[in-house]
Amino acid sequence: MKLEMEDNKSSGKLITFCGLDGCGKTTQINKLEEWLTNEGYKVFLTKQPTDYVRKSEIFRNFSDSPDNSRFEYRALSLFCAADRLQHTRRVIKDKLEKGYIVICDRYFYSCLANLIARGYTDDVWIYEIAKSIIKPDVSFFLSLPVEKAIGRVRRRPEEKDRYINPDFQKRLHDLYIEIAQKNKGIIVSSLLSEETCFERIKFEVNRIVKK
Ligand SMILES: Nc1ncnc2c1ncn2[C@@H]1O[C@H](COP(=O)(O)OP(=O)(O)OP(=O)(O)O)[C@@H](O)[C@H]1O
Ligand SMILES: [Mg+2]
């Protein structure tokens, strides 16, 4: 199905980053925030889903455990979608109207990719909700082979034993690429050095902020 989103009509700009855990989103976001701030822009850094969802039992269960039998994935997906709707319209939109460059760590695309990766391929409601979500001025999708992404996550001491399903991560990765290709997202290979990735990101961001 076609993903239709609301155009950003505000003076501010919305930049989003999606991709597997460990693909380098935070690394690039921090560089971008520093660069834009030094260039004199007002920057607002945020993330989705919000901590309200992240701390919930249902979210933690699907993130941390192979046994999800107690929970219905669609319920989590709707919960995340509701959180993203609230956050996009009441937090991000407010900042965009005030002229900020908003950088969001993960975005609605993650909700869509996860839903499909879990096998819910015909759920129309997600596309209905998307119509009320602001379309980013530029959306980055960082691409990294699954084994490498898992390796980077596992290098964090607190996540060295975290449950990760490689097959699921592969489906998710491929869906991110598909969503990017269908929606004019910018795919950046995170196999490249942090600096080379950032040069690519800077180039695209310059195109939207210097308009
Ligand atoms: N281009 C790169 N080349 C090599 N290592 C990188 C690169 N980008 C990030 N890393 C390293 O990979 C690890 C994960 O990066 P980062 O925390 O930015 O990923 P993330 O996408 O934000 O992960 P999460 O989704 O779990 O928040 C870090 O140790 C970081 O230093
Ligand atoms: Mg991160």
Structure description:
The chain is of the alpha/beta class and 211 residues long. It has a single domain, classed as 3-Layer(aba) Sandwich (Rossmann fold). It is built from nine helices and five strands, in the order E-H-E-H-H-H-E-H-H-E-H-H-E-H. A five-stranded parallel sheet has the order 2-3-1-4-5, with helices on both faces. Helix 5 crosses helix 8. It is globular. The two termini are 31 Å apart. Bound molecules: adenosine-5'-triphosphate and magnesium ion. Magnesium ion binds next to helix 1.
Topology record:
Elements: E1 13-18, H1 25-38, E2 43-47, H2 51-54, H3 57-64, H4 73-97, E3 101-105, H5 108-117, H6 125-130, E4 138-143, H7 146-154, H8 166-182, E5 186-189, H9 194-209
Parallel strand pairs: 1-3, 1-4, 2-3, 4-5
Helix pairs in contact: 1-9, 4-5, 5-8
Short précis:
The chain is of the alpha/beta class.
Using only C-alpha atoms, the radius of gyration works out to: 17 Å
CATH top level assignment: Alpha Beta
- Helix count, DSSP H or I runs of 4 or more residues: 9
> Largest beta sheet: what is the strand line-up?
2-3-1-4-5
CATH superfamily: P-loop containing nucleotide triphosphate hydrolases
DSSP summary, beta strand count: 5
What is the CATH topology assignment? Rossmann fold
What gross morphology would you assign?
globular
Q: Assess the beta-strand content as a share of residues.
A: 5-15%
- Name the CATH architecture: 3-Layer(aba) Sandwich
Low-confidence sequence ranges: none
Helix/strand order, N-terminal first: EHEHHHEHHEHHEH
Q: What structural category do the secondary elements indicate?
A: alpha/beta
Largest sheet: 5 strands, parallel
Bound molecules: adenosine-5'-triphosphate, magnesium ion
Counted up, domains total: 1
